[in-house]
Design brief:
Chain B: This is Carbohydrate ABC transporter permease. Chain B: It is a multi-pass membrane protein. The structure holds two protein chains of two kinds. Helix content of chain A is 78%, strand content 0%. Chain B has eleven helices and four strands, in the order αββββαααααααααα. The chains are: A mainly alpha, B mainly alpha.
C-alpha cells in the first residue's frame, strides 16, 4: 500500500513539474522581457559587485583577484572615518527635515488651510523642486549660494545684516547638502501625510471640536496617532533613499571641499569613476548593498506588500 | 470675540509662515525666468532690461576662450530620443508583465512579485560600477540605447506594479467573452483590455518620460562622446565653465531644458497630486 502511495506521489510530482513548466511557457512571452532586463541589470550587477570587490580591477576592466585586500584597505583608509560621520550627519539631519518639516507642511496645507485650492497651490510650489531635473535644481542652489554679491543669500545677508559676501558652499558644505536634499524630501512627506490626514474620518474632527478641543489638541490626539504608520514608513523609506543616492551632492559640492561633504555612496562613485579603482569602489558598494538589503527586508516585514506598493510612488 | 481671535490668530500665523518658507522656491524660479531674458537684475530677481542674448545658444555656438560647446539641437534630440525610448520600452514591457502578473497563473509568479517589491525599494545607483561593466561587456557603453536599457530596468518594478493594479480592476467577464469569441491571450490583451486602461497607460508613460527627461547620473557616467550628450550632461558642463561668468546663459539653457516639465506640470497639476498618491490609507 505504502509503495503504491509513493508511486502515485512521484507521478504527481512529475506531472506537477511538467505543468509548472507549461504554465511558465505560456506566460513567457508576457513576462520574458521583464525577466530579461531584471536579470541583466539587477541580479547580474549584484553578483558582479560582490565578485569585483575581491579584485583589484582598474580602468582596463581586467579581473585581478586579490582576495579580501579591498576590505582590508577600506579598514585602514584614513578617509573612512570622516565619510562615515558625514553619512550619519547627512542621513539623520536630512531625515529630520524630510519627515518633520514635511509633517508641518502637511498640517499647514492639509489641516489649517480650509480652502482646498490654496492648500493645493502651496503643495504645488513645494512639488516644483521634485519635478525639476536635478541639474537645474543644482543650478538654482549654486546661484542662491554664489560666493560673490550676485548670489541671493549674499544679497539678503548684505542688505539685512550688512555682512560681506560669504562663500557658503566652501564654509558649510554639509549644511548646504542637507538643506538642498531636505527641501526635496519634505515635499514627499507633505503629500503622503496630507493624503493621510484627508483620509481621517471627518467625525473625529467634529467630535473633538464639540468637546472643545483646540487645534493643538486635535493635532496631538487625533492627527498624530493616525499618522503613526505613514510617518514610520516615510522614515525608513527615506533612510534607504538617502543612504544610497548622491546625485544632488555630486552636483552641488562633489563631496568637497577636502571630502567635507563626501558620503558613503558618493565615496564609492569617486573611487570607481574618478580614481578608476573599480574593485575598491565595488567593495565600498558591497557594504552599501548589504545595508540596503537589510533596510528593504525590515520594510517588507513591517509593512507587507500592499502597503509598500500603495505608498511613495515617486522616488526620492 | 475673544474666542474668534483665538481661532483666527493661529491661522494667520500659519499662512504667514507658509508664505515665508515657500518664498525661496518662488524666488528661485522667478530668477530663472527673469535672468534668462535680462542682462541686469534689480534685487537679484527683477529684470532691468530685456535681451534675447542669453538665448543665443539656440542659433549660434557658445564659446569660452578657444573652447566651443556643442550645438544645442543635436543634444536636445538626444534627450528626446532617450526619454522617448525609455517611455516606449517601459510602457510596453510593463504592460506585458503587468498582464501576466494580474491575469495568469504560472510557476514562479509569486516569487517574481515579491522580488519586484524588494527591487522597488532597492537602489539601482548602488550598482553603478557593475552596470558599467555589464554595458561594456555587451557593447552598449557610450551608447544611448545602453542608458535606455539600464533606466528601464530600474524603473520597471514600480511601473509593472502600477500597471498590474489597472489590470486587476478590469472585469473578468469581458475578457472571458473575448476568449469565447476565439481571441488568443495576446489578442485579448491588445484589442480588448489595452484600450480600456488608457488612463493607466498614460500615467505610466508620463512618469517614464519625466524620469527619462531628467535622467542625469547614468548619462553622465555611461556616455562620454560629446555626440551622445543629453541636455542634463550638456547643462552640467556649461555650469562648470560659465558659473561665474554668465548666469543669464545658464538660466536660459536651464529654462529651455525645463519647458517640457513645466508644460506637463501645468496641465496635470491637480490630477498629479491625486494620481500619484491615491489609495493611501493611514
Amino acid at each position: 500500500m505504502q509503495e503504491q502511495g509513493l508511486v502515485v506521489d512521484k507521478k504527481k510530482a512529475k506531472k506537477n513539474i511538467t505543468e509548472n513548466y507549461r504554465s511558465f511557457l505560456t506566460a513567457l512571452p508576457f513576462i520574458g522581457p521583464f525577466l530579461l532586463l531584471i536579470i541583466l541589470f539587477y541580479f547580474t550587477p549584484v553578483i558582479l559587485t560582490l565578485i569585483m570587490s575581491l579584485t583589484g580591477m582598474d580602468f582596463t576592466l581586467e579581473w585581478k583577484f586579490s582576495g579580501l585586500e579591498n576590505y582590508i584597505k577600506l579598514f585602514h583608509d584614513q578617509n573612512v572615518e570622516l565619510v562615515i560621520i558625514n553619512t550619519i550627519k547627512y542621513v539623520v539631519f536630512t531625515l529630520v527635515i524630510n519627515v518633520g518639516f514635511g509633517f508641518l507642511l502637511a498640517i499647514a496645507t492639509g489641516y489649517f488651510i480650509k480652502d482646498e485650492n490654496v492648500g493645493l497651490l502651496f503643495q504645488t510650489i513645494w512639488m516644483l523642486p521634485r519635478m525639476t531635473p536635478a541639474v537645474i535644481y543644482a543650478l538654482l542652489w549654486l546661484w542662491f549660494l554664489d560666493p560673490t554679491e550676485v548670489g541671493m543669500l549674499n544679497i539678503l545677508s548684505g542688505k539685512l545684516f550688512v555682512l560681506p559676501p560669504q562663500n557658503w558652499i566652501l564654509n558649510h558644505p554639509m549644511g548646504v547638502v542637507i538643506i538642498a536634499n531636505g527641501m526635496i524630501g519634505a515635499s514627499l512627506g507633505m503629500v503622503v501625510f496630507s493624503a493621510a490626514i484627508k483620509s481621517i474620518p471627518i467625525d473625529y474632527f467634529q467630535a473633538a471640536s464639540v468637546d472643545g478641543a483646540s487645534d493643538w489638541d486635535i493635532i496631538r490626539h487625533v492627527i498624530i496617532p493616525f499618522l503613526k504608520w505613514p510617518i514610520m514608513f516615510m522614515t525608513i523609506w527615506q533612510t534607504l533613499s538617502l543612504i544610497t543616492s548622491y546625485e544632488y551632492i555630486l552636483l552641488l559640492t562633489d563631496g568637497g571641499p577636502l571630502n567635507k561633504s563626501e558620503v558613503w555612496s558618493l565615496f564609492s562613485y569617486h573611487k570607481a569613476f574618478s580614481n578608476y579603482e573599480f574593485g575598491y569602489g565595488a567593495a565600498i558598494s558591497v557594504v552599501l548593498v548589504i545595508i540596503a538589503i537589510i533596510i528593504a527586508l525590515i520594510m517588507l516585514k513591517l509593512f507587507g506588500y500592499e502597503a509598500m506598493m500603495n505608498r511613495g510612488k515617486i522616488k526620492v | 470675540m475673544r474666542q474668534q481671535i483665538k481661532v483666527f490668530l493661529p491661522r494667520i500665523f500659519i499662512y504667514l509662515l507658509l508664505i515665508f518658507v515657500s518664498l525661496p522656491i518662488v524666488i528661485a524660479y522667478l530668477w530663472l525666468f527673469s535672468s534668462s531674458i535680462s542682462r541686469e537684475l534689480t534685487f537679484g530677481v527683477l529684470p532691468r532690461s530685456f535681451t534675447l542674448d542669453n538665448w543665443r545658444f539656440l542659433w549660434s555656438e557658445i564659446k569660452i576662450g578657444t573652447k566651443v560647446f556643442e550645438n544645442i539641437w543635436p543634444v536636445t534630440f538626444n534627450s528626446i530620443l532617450l526619454a522617448g525610448s525609455i517611455t516606449v520600452a517601459e510602457v510596453i514591457i510593463s504592460l506585458l508583465a503587468g498582464f501576466a502578473l494580474s491575469r495568469m497563473n504560472f510557476f514562479g509568479k509569486d516569487y517574481i512579485m515579491k522580488t519586484a517589491i524588494i527591487l522597488h525599494a532597492f537602489p539601482g545607483v548602488a550598482l553603478l560600477i557593475a552596470l558599467f561593466y555589464v554595458l561594456n561587456f555587451i557593447g552598449l557603453l557610450d551608447k544611448i540605447i545602453g542608458v535606455v536599457m539600464v533606466k528601464v530596468a530600474l524603473e520597471l518594478p514600480m511601473a509593472t506594479w502600477m500597471i498590474k493594479g489597472f489590470f486587476d480592476e478590469f472585469p473578468w467577464d469581458i475578457e472571458w467573452a473575448a476568449y469565447i469569441d476565439g481571441c488568443t491571450r495576446f489578442q485579448a490583451w491588445y484589442r480588448i483590455i489595452l484600450p480600456q486602461i488608457k488612463p493607466g497607460i498614460a500615467a505610466v508613460a508620463i512618469f517614464a518620460f519625466l524620469a527619462g527627461w531628467s535622467e542625469f547620473i547614468y548619462s553622465y557616467t555611461f556616455l562620454f562622446s560629446s555626440e551622445n550628450y543629453t541636455l542634463a550632461v550638456f547643462l552640467k558642463n556649461l555650469i562648470g565653465d560659465f558659473r561665474f561668468l554668465d548666469y543669464g546663459l545658464l538660466a536660459a539653457t536651464g529654462l529651455f531644458y525645463l519647458i517640457p516639465v513645466i508644460v506637463f506640470f501645468l496641465i496635470s497639476q491637480k490630477s498629479l497630486m491625486k494620481m500619484t498618491f491615491g489609495g493611501m490609507k493611514g
